[in-house]
TrEMBL record:
It comes from Microbacterium barkeri. This is 3-methyladenine DNA glycosylase. GO terms for molecular function: DNA-3-methyladenine glycosylase activity; metal ion binding. The lineage of its organism: Bacteria, Bacillati, Actinomycetota, Actinomycetes, Micrococcales. PANTHER family: DNA-3-METHYLADENINE GLYCOSYLASE 1, DNA-3-METHYLADENINE GLYCOSYLASE I. It comes from the Bacteria. Gene3D superfamilies: Hypothetical protein, domain 2 (1.10.340.30).
Amino acid sequence: MADAHTGAGLAAGPGAASADLVIGPDGLGRPRWAASDELMRAYYDTEWGMPVRDETGLFERLSLEAFQSGLSWATILRKRPAFREVFAGFDPDAVAAFDESDVERLLGDARIIRNRAKILATIGNARATVELRAEGGLVDFIWSHRPAQTPAPTSYAEIPTTSPESIALSKALKKRGFRFVGPTTMFALMEAVGIVDTHLVGSHRRGTSGVWA
């Protein structure tokens, strides 16, 4: 995944440190995947790695990470407005109530990723999210897997694709009925929502989340 936002995608990129961080015309350092495409740059500058601590926001990120599997993150970003529309703004209660007619509606909508398994997983994950409220909710559940330390990569090659915490989170979510939540996908989620900071050292976003000093 050459333009993925995840550690998995970054690790597949060029390994030379000098090629991994790009200084833009604005003088700011960004990873190569965020340096050229305007949409990806805006996502990197304003959203990726910033804390997400609301249920709807985390459910959306969890869902989009699942849909991204095997695809580029740029594809998901371009389709995100349509995803939000057809999945009721990723409101877990609304998605949990989807039935077979909704599945067929989604499979017929060319604006999103028409993968039955991922669509069914999203609906199932919404129901699991609602049930998880009895244990304190999705937000506390996911954030409880924050590690004691965060990576400090200087190159793509130093960015992990999984961690003990992402493995534990994957297992815990699967136990509660979630699907498409493998360790690599969960590490990508943890990167995206600020639980770990894998911004390259030298990036203008390094340390800006407020989660890590």
